[in-house]
Design a protein that fits this description.
The chain is built from two helices and four strands; from the N terminus they run βαβαββ. By secondary structure, the protein is an alpha+beta fold. It has a four-stranded mixed sheet with strand order 1-2-4-3, with helices on one face.
């Protein structure tokens, strides 16, 4: 079972808690996804998990790219990162 968590405007500790909850409920993989300015928050969440909460968490895969988002009839490219974590 895998869980996908979208990183947004909340503090990073909220996403750390969401990851811990997912792993404790039996998920073997957690996918963290951050877009635009939230990419750095996504990386911070992974570092907090590895250093302070779950030392045994492993980064399986990191996927980066750009997707087109339509805002007000205009398409804009938005960068994203997906980090797949496993326990």
């Amino acid at each position: 079972m895998e869980t996908k968590i979208i990183v947004g405007k909340k503090p990073p500790l909220r996403y750390v808690t969401a990851c811990l909850t997912s792993f404790n409920r039996g998920s073997d993989k957690v996918i963290l996804r951050g877009r635009g300015q939230r990419i750095s928050t996504c990386v911070d969440v992974v570092n907090m998990l590895k250093r302070g909460f779950l030392g045994e968490v492993k980064i399986e895969k990191i996927h980066i790219g750009t997707e087109l988002i339509t805002i007000d009839d205009k398409q804009r490219p938005i960068s994203f990162i997906e980090i797949v974590l496993s326990r």
